[in-house]
Amino acid sequence: MINAASAPGRLYVLDTSVLIHDPTALFRFQEHGICLPMAVLTELDAAKQGHSDIARSARQASRFLDGLLSGTDRAALAAGVPLVDTDPGATGRLWFHNADDRPGDSGILASADQLTRELRHTQVTLVSKDVNLRVRALASGLRAEDYRSDRVTEDLDLLQSGIDTLPDAVWTARRETLLENGQEGVRIPLPEGTHWFPGQCLHHDESGFEGIVRQAEPGACWVEPVQDFRGDGGPWGVRARNQEQNFALNLLMDPEIDFVSLLGPAGTGKTLLTLAAGLEQTLELKRFVEIVMTRATIALGEDIGYLPGSEEEKMTPWMGALADNLEVLGQPESGGDWGRAATADLVQSRIKLRSLAFMRGRTFVRRLLILDEAQNLTSKQMKALITRAGPGTKVVCMGNLGQIDTPYLTESSSGLSWAVQRLRDWPHSGHITLQRGERSRLADFANEAL
């Protein structure tokens, strides 16, 4: 039990979902107190079996707790276990509470309710990733909130689109010169309050200029003009249909860019552009040996092992978008049926489907690694996949933050948002948010009207 005299000003009661989502949440509340109901410990024990991400997180949280409690006596438990001994960023204390024998969410709510009534001078708040549990708590008159320490940004609108407009005054003050790589470049002064980063796409509509920031310096940046893929000669015969797609193709085709993230709703061309650029660099330019494509298998709700066949055969039902786009990319304008069949076989022979379950420990050399539906990945999964890249490998993450299917993940805590923010200032990364649909007039209208 917590002594009211020694209770902190704020006490956060953590739900099991928080520790499953982020085992380090124990150290994310700075100087404030943390309380774990006994029902949480029971649920952690039940979840630790197996090889899933949930089981791994449960075991990691249990290891943290074991380290905190090592050598702790009963008196120290009553006073609260100091968290600073494990993490210098956390200066609060950890308590445990047992309200009654009720299991699961009922026991967690009972602990939060009893602590709220007993500690009248302490603000008790239930923290949970479970929306229904938060609703039940609020309906019972308790304080409840989502776990926010893992959020990239509180407002998703602050996530940059990767494209910005050059003001007329800034464009007038430009100075053209040659960059170190021999390409023509433009030195553009930074407007006040603006932060442009390497890989940022800039355009000036009146002059028609489009470029990518290559170097940044105090008060200015060096911008290199992009190649126009809206005419003939696009990668693998694919033309950019708008400015966003043209910027995306330039990032995808750039050998100096190792990481590209493409956000956008269905029909904006993420998969088609990526595959076209990949095939061009694999079969024509010989930059890559093959294309490796994977995605999170979320929608079915079953493990990949329930499907018959090899790893690639099991992944095939999840790759409908790949098959649809290969039908377009594998159809040459000339050559007849034999030519089309030969092209389709050649294309498919250079594309490998891989499961996330077998990615740990692998290293991809001179591959184009495509992560589809990346919005369903956690930050840990995203890090594990990006670090699979070996020499000469390019990683492309595609997704739509409006279609997250993973439990407890939100737009702001998705691994895709996390990667975009963390890699933003790295000179070998690029990001584009595609907003204009190009699938069909019916799809465009449906996106707006439905």
UniProtKB/TrEMBL annotation:
Alphabetically sorted, this entry's keywords are: ATP-binding, Nucleotide-binding
- State the name under which the record lists this protein: PhoH family protein
Which GO terms fall under molecular function for this chain's record?
ATP binding
Q: Which family does it belong to?
A: Belongs to the PhoH family.
Cited CDD domains: PIN_VapC_PhoHL-ATPase (cd09883)
Q: Which residues form the AAA+ ATPase domain?
A: 256-424
Domain annotation PIN: ranges: 10-135
Kindly indicate whether the keyword ATP-binding belongs to this entry: yes
Superkingdom assignment: Bacteria
Q: Which cellular component, as a GO term, is one annotated location? A: cytosol
Q: What InterPro entries does the entry give?
A: AAA+_ATPase (IPR003593), P-loop_NTPase (IPR027417), PhoH (IPR003714), PhoH2-like (IPR051451), PIN-like_dom_sf (IPR029060), PIN_dom (IPR002716)
> Which organism is the protein's source?
Alkalilimnicola ehrlichii (strain ATCC BAA-1101 / DSM 17681 / MLHE-1)
- Does the keyword field hold ATP-binding? yes
